[in-house]
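Z., the sequence and structure:
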Amino acid sequence: MIDLHSHTNESDGTFTPLELLDLAAKVGLDALAISDHDTFAGFDQALPVAQSRGLDLVCGIELSTRVPASKVRTVHLLGYFLHQPPSEAFREWLGELIAGRRDRNQRLIKSLRDQGVDIELSEVERLGRTLTGRPHFARLLIQKGYVRSFDEAFRRYLGESAPSYVERFAPYVAEAIERVIDAGGLPVLAHPIRLGFRDPTSEEKFIGGLCDAGLRGIEVFHSDQAPDDRERYAGIARKYNLGVSGGSDFHGEVKPQISLGTGLHGNLDIPKSVLDNLRAVSQ
């Protein structure tokens, strides 16, 4: 069993990199990918320990991207570095994305304070560590008693329809795909179910457009995707010659219903052959 989609507390998860490795050993994973948002900090910490334990640790990244002139507001792109480490130029580009996040966070603080929420950026950054995002704002809002849950935090303050919502810079998906490829990685569409299409034909057309931009894989197995969804995405993978990936999207206490390796209430059991085939695709 493997899991190619997980997050540490270096992005929006709650487990430290070493705690995540301990959990991977406990649940019996043969391979694990750390795919934090916009940073390799968690992977870098975990790699020497994973190597000493004989765990196949895959270097991954998750990028939030946008699509010009589209009803789809956000596309999440996974990048897997299966044969070589990411280039220094790619790491520098990630630094630019993190700087963009901090600029958004400063504007979000002002917007929240205008709504009567008394918080400081330094408080949120103590929770966010390398990368501070909206889930860390939600945790602080809960701690300070402004809301009772993550759902309420996003509904009232942080979600795209909330009055205090502030958009952050995100690269276009075609640029992100190109950056991953140039850095020696394999660009994979994350959790396609979240694109929000109700019509399978429109969904496939959109994914086909991403393939034209250089997409090389699709996350067929994911906690949010039912068996019918997986069958549909597997068909798209065959049609467009895409690699198949899969993972739980584990975040720890932020999403307690999602378990490492086994997903949502045990709906995942991804074999090692998925990773073997991805490595073959990325040659």
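The domain at 2-94+169-281 is CATH 3.20.20.140 (TIM Barrel). The CA atoms of residues 221 and 246 lie 4 Å apart.

Let me know what you think.
H.
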